[in-house]
From TrEMBL:
Keywords: Cell membrane, Ion transport, Membrane, Sodium, Sodium transport, Translocase, Transmembrane, Transmembrane helix, Transport. This is Probable oxaloacetate decarboxylase gamma chain. One of its GO terms (molecular function) is decarboxylation-driven active transmembrane transporter activity. It comes from Marinomonas piezotolerans. It is an enzyme of class 7 (translocase). Pfam families: OAD_gamma. The gene is oadG. The lineage of its organism: Bacteria, Pseudomonadati, Pseudomonadota, Gammaproteobacteria, Oceanospirillales. GO terms for biological process: sodium ion export across plasma membrane.
């Protein structure tokens, strides 16, 4: 029985070691690829735009028929 437990623990350590090694290699590979990509394809800064001003007369006028339809839909929904 003791030999079976030792074999199980050894297999567990071997499996965990391989997973730890794989994850370490994965971290180094992704770091290296990130540095490689930023070296060959630097990030382009977007051109700055002037902020658009709101119209002086306020928001655009809403069609009264559309406003009535929206109001009726809200009223019907709340009365359910």
């Amino acid at each position: 029985m003791n030999n079976l437990i030792n074999d199980g623990l050894g297999l567990m350590m071997l499996g965990m070691g391989f997973v730890f090694l794989f994850l370490g290699i994965l971290i180094f590979a992704t770091t290296y690829m990130s540095k490689l990509l930023t070296h060959y394809f630097p990030e382009v800064m977007p051109a700055t735009k002037k902020p658009q001003r709101a119209p002086a007369n306020g928001p655009a006028a809403v069609d009264p028929n559309i406003a009535a339809a929206i109001t009726a839909a809200i009223h019907q929904h709340r009365n359910r």
